[in-house]
Amino acid sequence: MAMAADEIAALIRQSIPDASVEITDLAGDGDHYAARVVSESFRGLPRVRQHQRVYEALGGRMGGVLHALQLTTATP
Amino acid sequence: MTEDVQARIDQAVKGSDVLLFMKGSPLFPQCGFSSRAIAILDRLGVDYASIDVLQDQGIRQGIKAYSDWPTIPQLYVKGEFVGGSDIMMEMYESGELAELMTKSGVAQKAA
């Protein structure tokens, strides 16, 4: 059920092309990840909207197959 | 379910200055993210209400539609959706969360 780290990164880059994405496997179990996403397109967006952009990129997997994704967003 | 649930959620959100939708209760959080959210609110020293979504499947699903946000916990301040535990942590560390509470007129006990 879990997702691979590069699969998560690929989905994010697909929908936010300029994003730099860093995925960390927090527990080494392929199920608890931290993602840091940096994109110029986040500039001026409230944090909730920035996270929402990433969730949209993950297309409904967030909260489902991806229960434990700790997300940080930033602008370059 | 939907309309009734949305109305109930709306009422709850507007009925408390600070409201956390979470898994479990503040004393017994049932998930690490909810536990983290509680720790942040306690550290800020604000009074808050909480709703355990595990007790109500309608609310558990309905809250995701209400906020267009896929995960729980979810924090609301003065009826406005603030974010989940990651956002709470970022805002807590940068001081923005304390600032938001102050701006919203929510009392914080001095740490």
UniProtKB/TrEMBL annotation, chain A:
InterPro entries: BolA, BolA-like_sf, BolA/IbaG_stress_morph_reg. It comes from the Bacteria. Belongs to the BolA/IbaG family. PANTHER family: BOLA TRANSCRIPTION REGULATOR, BOLA-LIKE PROTEIN 1. This is BolA family transcriptional regulator. It comes from Sphingomonas morindae.
From TrEMBL, chain B:
Residues 18-82 form the Glutaredoxin domain. Transmembrane segments: none annotated. This is Glutaredoxin. SUPFAM superfamilies: Thioredoxin-like. The keyword Protein transport does not apply. InterPro entries: Glutaredoxin (IPR002109), GRX_PICOT-like (IPR033658), Monothiol_GRX (IPR014434), Monothiol_GRX-rel (IPR004480), Thioredoxin-like_sf (IPR036249). Keywords: 2Fe-2S, Iron, Iron-sulfur, Metal-binding, Redox-active center. Gene3D superfamilies: Glutaredoxin. Belongs to the glutaredoxin family. Monothiol subfamily.
